[in-house]
Amino acid sequence: MKKNIIDKKRINEIENDVFNILSEQEIDIIKKRFGIGFNKETLEEIGKKYGVTRERVRQIESVIIKKIDNIQKQNSKLSSLKEEILVLIEEYGGIVEENFLLDNFFIDLSNEEKDVTRFILNKLFNDYLDIFKDKKTKSVIYKSKNLNLEDFGFIKKNIEEIMNNIKEPLSFDEIMEKLNLLGIFNKTEKILTNLYKKSKTDNSKLFQNTIYSALHVMNNTDLNIFKKWGMKNWKTINPKRMSDKIYLVLSKEGKPTHFKKITDIINDYNFDKKKARDVTVHNELIMDSRYVLVGRGIYALKEWGYKNGAVSDIIEDILKKSKKALSKKDIIEKVKEQRMVKDSTIYLALTNNPKFKKVKEGYKLV
What is the mean pLDDT of residues 16-31? Predict the structure, then answer.
């Protein structure tokens, strides 16, 4: 993915060009009105400061915007930036989310420099882009005028279907693999031809860019802390309860894990700024039937095939399923698939339980 194409030096130069044509009062008004380095203020709040009506502030704002807009025609830096942004958006499927754009294609901008960039994009580029706010997420979306939203809907629908069929978080590569298996690239290539006609980038790469941007634009998908995609309302994407955080950590680890290590991972990833405690995590592991104790303080997911019970219960289950007597070695190996215990512990449970009988071939149930 192409990244970091616009540096802060260019943004600072454009900011100077834009604000050099304004008086100090106009700069103050426009910065406060659009939250550039400040919290956004209402027309009424700004009017009180300058002793004028809100309508007068609105008129001043309109004059300022016209002044700034007029410099586009003769400012080569703005023209160049505009062209790059338009091409960039089209190379990402014609639609991008504002923070995705700022985080991926601008180098080391301060918060104020990001505010300036948002202002430029929203106020100076609105003749070249459709700019709107998502009603659900409040995210600002930039869309090429060449893209039909119905075409984007086709891409969105296929991503949603994949996620809802799998019902578990997927990496970006896994999503791409499944889209390619469905032949979505071939179906989408024709839809996006108009956007890609200026690009020298390979079409398969452009398709990948398009899906990556779409995941950020969609208001019902999200990344979990382990950088896997899923539906925003899934517990494995945005876990709220401690037990769900534990489940996500164990799924990521993919193996039985000590409860103290689970606690450390939860705190290291800082799920929601709530500090996890060993005792809380341990209690959740004990109470939730999704987890099985497999060793001293070590827990696994039940869905991995682990079963609850003492070592003798595990042996009983193994012998029930076997059509013949099993040797001590075989029993120990099978128990160790379920429990992290010493050989001596297994042998003790085997020899001290009246349910198990030693025969010539090994052990069987009485």
Answer: 90
- The size of the chain, in residues, is 366
Q: CA-to-CA distance for 181 and 318, rounded, in angstroms?
A: 40
| Average pLDDT value over all residues in the chain | 88
Unique residue bearing structure tokens 């802390």: 225
Q: Where are the beta strands (DSSP E) in the chain?
A: 95-97, 129-133, 140-144, 221-223, 229-231, 257-258, 291-295, 298-301, 356-359, 362-365
52 in helix, strand or coil? coil
pLDDT, tens only, 88-102:
898 898 899 999 999
Identical fold for domains 8-144 and 311-365, yes or no, is yes
Nearest to 101, CA basis, from 129, 73, 78: 129
Distance CA 177, CA 205 (A): 13
Two structure tokens written together for 39: 């919290």
Report yes or no on whether pTM surpasses 0.85.
no
Return the structure tokens found at 268: 């290291």
CATH (residue range 311-365): 1.10.10
* Angle in degrees, 0-180, between the axes of helices 76-91 and 98-105, rounded to the nearest 10: 110
At the second CATH level, the architecture of 8-144 is Orthogonal Bundle (1.10)
DSSP 208-265: HHHHHHHHHH-TTEEE-TTS-EEETT-TTTS--SHHHHHHHHHHHH-S-EEHHHHHHH
Looking at residue 125, what is its pLDDT? Answer: 84
- In the DSSP assignment, the letter for residue 301 is E
Q: Which of 153, 133, 152, 150 is nearest to 142 (CA)?
A: 133
Question: pLDDT of 341-362, one tens digit each?
Answer: 889 988 898 888 888 988 888 8
Domain layout of the chain by residue ranges: 8-144, 149-226, 242-304, 311-365
Kindly write down the DSSP assignment for every residue of 137-153, as one continuous string: T--EEEEETT--HHHHH
Smallest CA-to-CA distance from 217 within 159, 168, 174, 258 is with: 159
Residue type for 212, please? Y
Report the distance separating Cα 41 and Cα 48, nearest Å: 11
Mean pLDDT score, 22-37: 90
The C-alpha atoms of residue 161 and residue 165 are separated, in whole angstroms, by 6
Average pLDDT over residues 201-216: 87
